[in-house]
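Budget justification, computational time. The allocation requested in the original proposal was used primarily to generate structure tokens for proteins on the priority list. As evidence of use, we reproduce two of the resulting records. The first is shown immediately below.
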Amino acid sequence: MSRCIIYHSYSGITRGVAKKVRAACGGDLIEVKPKKNYNALTVYPLGGYRAMNDKKDPINPEKIDVAGYDMMVIGTPVWAWKPTPAINAAIAALKDCKGKKAVIYATCGGQAGETIAIMRKALEKKGVEVVGDMVFDKKTVRDGRKINELIVMVNAAAIA
């Protein structure tokens, strides 16, 4: 089963999870980046505000064609208990995703809030079946067992 791993990472933590999934499961990495980067002074006040209000940032790549994949793994940091504006835009930018499967994950310092529910709802509106989800906090993101749980989830989704 062909898969892609779509993610946005500000600090590198979400990227680290994406790379571990790719190393264990294969697939193409697609890093989503805002066209206008946040910096240390703007990431939480502006980025968090935009996330809190379910905004979408202009991103690169502008469109994400997943026609050649059977499933997606989509990861986001949590800002203001919600997905980042870049991941909101990435989900909106998915092309030819109807009927695909997805496993979603979020990385956060404490609690994920509404992040997973928001991602699930946006993907289901596009016809994507979310077959699994996971949240990593600052302790579990370094726990190899928790990463392995995500890898098992991704591999199980591929054969289901």
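The second record produced under the same allocation is shown here.
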Amino acid sequence: MANAKVIEQKSQVVSEIKEKLDNAKSVVLFDYRGLTVSEVNELRRALKEAGASYKVYKNTLMVRALNDSNKELENYLAGPSAISFSDDELAPVKVISEFAKEHEALELKAGIVEGKVASAAELAQYAAIPSREGLLTMLAGGMMGVVRDLSICLDLYSNQKEN
């Protein structure tokens, strides 16, 4: 029979994972096999700068936490998996996707974005969305074009009335 101290430690880890799952706006599961220690540290640093955390847990403990929090990611837990939690919906998806482009050993498995399970293909689509600042810039550029066109039309109209 398992030691009571070991069982208590495992239950604490399960409750930690469950708490992180419940509080995170996005969760990303990925396969980190093949990355060197320096590459893992680089990824960890990039995720931290984006406001995300990175952790490796035993799959059995993650399955228990996922079952407790009613998240359906158990099917993606084959083999070693790392997990990233964030309060931002897209930051970890973008960071890990960009990192995966440079390091072929990293493979996205699945994630949870806005409470919905997303496959690796869906995560790739999320990663292609421009940042908030980029979207605002595009919106401002579109609005400036409309204002410019209106000013040209008004100028032409006023020139026509003067003649």
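A brief technical remark on that second record: The chain has a mean pLDDT of 85.
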